[in-house]
Amino acid sequence: MTLFWDIPKKEAQSIRSFMLLLFFTATAYYLLKKHSTESKQRVLLTIYPYEAPVYQRFHFDPNTLTEDSLALLGIPEKTMKSMINFRSKGGKFRTKEDLQKIYNFPPVLYDSLAPWIKIQTSHKPQQRIIAMDLNLADSTDLVTLKGIGKTFASRIIKYRTALGGFHSLDQLNEIYGLKPETIAQIRPYLKIKTPVSKIKINEVAELKHPYLRSYQAKAILAYRKQHGEFKNLEDLKNIDALDEETLAKLLPYLQF
């Protein structure tokens, strides 16, 4: 095998010259290609100057904004898809901060958009409550009230008849089995406009009322027979059989 240093001097010099020529040729080609590429880029930039995208700012509701409008705000495509997917599944942005819960929502972008977020709140018009007169309502009316079935409707009407009508909604608490929470629930739908039927205490031959026990009713009639007509409540207070609580409950039903 012939080694490089065994080659004659003249031939070795020719090989070195060829290799140097090859090196300079490759270097020149690389530099010319790089210069050509940069020149083309400069020409393209001159013809088509690059402009950074300018995103718009306007008030928006993230619950209703379209994909095109979201893009105008500079929201990345993946983030837009996450927002739309969230909405399509019934999700709702209730506050502007909820937007930060979207996966990969850029914090800097949120800070830029936050002042422009306006979430509309839907206010359902309040239904006007039409209250029924408790002293005129029949069973058909009463069963429309939540918690009042046929049984309670019947009890209310029966007790109303015995009383001579209700003078206060609080009297519903006196109906057997009717729970306070049910009464509280139906109160907004009830009113009392029709006055009660009063007992002419100085004229009745018989006295019967849910607030009076039999012996109390007899005591009233006996006192009237002995002392004459009642002029006012004070006269009734003279009857030992009547306590203050009974008189207070009975008074709205008395006519002197």
From TrEMBL:
GO terms for biological process: protein secretion by the type II secretion system. GO terms for cellular component: type II protein secretion system complex. It comes from the Bacteria. Pfam families: HHH_3 (PF12836). The keyword Membrane applies. Keywords: Membrane, Transmembrane, Transmembrane helix. The chain crosses the membrane at residues 15-32. This is Helix-hairpin-helix domain-containing protein. It comes from Leadbetterella byssophila (strain DSM 17132 / JCM 16389 / KACC 11308 / NBRC 106382 / 4M15). The lineage of its organism: Bacteria, Pseudomonadati, Bacteroidota, Cytophagia, Cytophagales.
